[in-house]
Design goal:
It is built from no helices and ten strands. The protein has strands spanning 3-7, 10-13, 18-25, 34-39, 46-51, 58-60, 68-73, 78-83, 92-97, 111-116. The strands form two sheets. A six-stranded mixed beta sheet has the order 2-10-9-4-5-6, with no helix packed on it.
Length: 117
C-alpha cells in the first residue's frame, strides 16, 4: 500500500533553515528515484529536487540550487530535504513522491513551509 508522510515544515524567517522528512512505503519508494515537489498558492506543483535510488544522481531546480540538499536513507524508507537560506518565494506546501508522479497519482498531505520576510 502506498503511503507518503511529509513532515518538518513550519514558519521561518528569511535566511533560516528547515529540514523536511518524508517517510515512504510501497511501490513508489521501492528501489526507485524519489523527489521533492512544492506547490505555492495559485501555482502549479513544481519539482524541486530528485535523487536516484543509490543517491548517485541528484538534480535540483535552478531556483533552489546551492541552497537545498536532498538525501535519502533507504534502510529507513526516508527522503530528506535540507533547506537553507530560505526566501519568501520558497513558501509552499512541500511533497515527496516519485519524480514521474502525475496529479492523478497518490500524493501525501504535504508539509507547509512559510518563509517570512
Amino acid at each position: 500500500q502506498e503511503q507518503l508522510v511529509e513532515s518538518g515544515g513550519g514558519l521561518v524567517q528569511a535566511g533560516g533553515s528547515l529540514r523536511l522528512s518524508c517517510t515512504a512505503s510501497g511501490r513508489t519508494f521501492s528501489r526507485g528515484p524519489m523527489g521533492w515537489f512544492r506547490q505555492a498558492p495559485g501555482k502549479e506543483r513544481e519539482s524541486v529536487a530528485r535523487i536516484s535510488w543509490l543517491g548517485v544522481s541528484i538534480t535540483y531546480a535552478d531556483s533552489v540550487k546551492g541552497r537545498f540538499t536532498i538525501s535519502r536513507d533507504n534502510a529507513k524508507n526516508k527522503v530528506y530535504l535540507q533547506m537553507s537560506s530560505l526566501k519568501p518565494e520558497d513558501t509552499a506546501v512541500y511533497y515527496c513522491n516519485s519524480p514521474t508522479a502525475t496529479n492523478s497519482d497518490y500524493w501525501g498531505q504535504g508539509t507547509q513551509v512559510t518563509v517570512s520576510s
